[in-house]
Design brief:
- By secondary structure, the chain is mostly helical.
- It has a single domain (11-450), classed as Amino acid/polyamine transporter I, CATH 1.20.1740.10.
- The protein has helices at 11-22, 25-37, 41-69, 73-80, 85-121, 131-142, 145-164, 166-194, 199-207, 216-229, 236-241, 250-278, 289-299, 304-338, 342-361, 377-404, 407-414, 422-450.
- The termini are far apart.
- The model has no long low-confidence stretch (mean pLDDT 90).
- Bound molecules: tryptophan.
- Tryptophan binds next to helix 1, helix 2, helix 10 and helix 14.
- Tryptophan is lined by residues 21-22, 24-27, 228-229, 231, 233-234, 236, 322, 325-326, 390.
Amino acid sequence: MDGNREHWGNKLGFILAAAGSAVGLGNIWKFPYITGENGGAAFIIIYLICILIIGLPVLIAEILLGRNSQLGPISTFRKLARKHKKLWIIAGGIFFFTGLVILSYYNVIAGWSLGYMVESIAGKISSFQTSADASVHFDALVKNPIWIISWQFAFVALGGIVVYFGVRNGIEKISKLLMPVFFVILIFLVIWGVSLEGAEKGLAFLFKPDWSTVSFKTVLMALGHAFFTLSVGMGVLLTYGSYLKKDDNVFFSGIMIALLDTLIAMLAGLAIFTSVFAMGFNPADGPGLVFNVLPAVFSQMPGGNIFSSLFFILLSIAALTSTISILEMLVSTLMDEFNMKRHSSVVLLSATIFILGIPSALSFGELGHISIFGLNWFDTMDYLSANILLPFGGMLVAVFVGWYLMKQDIMGELFHGVRNTDFNRGTSKVWYFLVKFVAPILIFLVFLSAIGVLK
Ligand code: TRP
């Protein structure tokens, strides 16, 4: 084991950092609108089942791999693969590539939220009569290359600064500071939303399932989102796991991370849908829900400026603690594979990500005419990573742990830090079965749907 490797200061630091990775734009920007588009409560129930039987088992597997190797993704496969080593190194390379792709466009939306935060604080987000008015404002901003690229740059720089300071002084510190702030703001917004007149329609939408809207595609959407939201499938949690010491209970941490992520998605859904329904807006407004509909909702509330400021601070925090986790995976890969220093890796990667993201940033204006199979550049990056690369990566992790490692080795790793009781032995058997059989098969189905075979 590399004695110089940094480790988390304590267990809470790891859990908050990993929960910070999981809780991101996926929870607050994507979860509400896909729930809105897929019929509400029935979708949520399927999504919860997917988290439990696929997301959580693979999440635990990823953390275990990292804790065992004490290395970033490519080096982990190099060290642990007994057979087909070259192929597994390529798999690690795919993780690296996926990270670059996701960060390139994720930073663009993160930049919008930062920009919207500042707009809200400046009082410009509180005078829209309809969501169409809010859309006009939104469109004008995202079509302005200076606005969008400046905010994208600001966000890339922000993430770079945190990761520059390292695991303990950067990522762990900022997570311990921001996650509680995040939680307080969220609870405040939920209480406010639920107390609005007309909020019950939002509650019914979230909690009363209407099974008639469910199709096979709904199931696959829920499945895909389950591991996007948990940060599973490209070695990010593997990297965070590599900064764990042997005596941490990965089972417990994994459950905490998945619980926090799910709880926060539900709370964000509560805050957003109670407000959207109470104000009479459309929950199925698509990706613009947060940027087009919420500003109009806020405009009609007393103190709307304060709420919209709080909301976009919330969104920016969520995005920041997620981007730093992806950046850290890339940085640790360069450090472990190429012996690069942290500081030069951060600078090199941030510059690369910024440049790679420019076409995504311009997809809403100047480069909007570029079309790849009918999608603009931004949507292509999102589709490629979320629907193809991530499911593939999640399947690789499950196959690696289930079929390429010795069962006794992986169980031995699991039971470092887990008490050897009957209950734990039973649970670990269920976990192993889910990782070995259930997860790869179900993920394979998502993958087929993504490439259009099942559509
Ligand atoms: N989970 C984050 C979200 O919900 C996004 C994210 C961060 C991610 N790290 C990841 C997704 C790693 C996949 C893999 O927004």
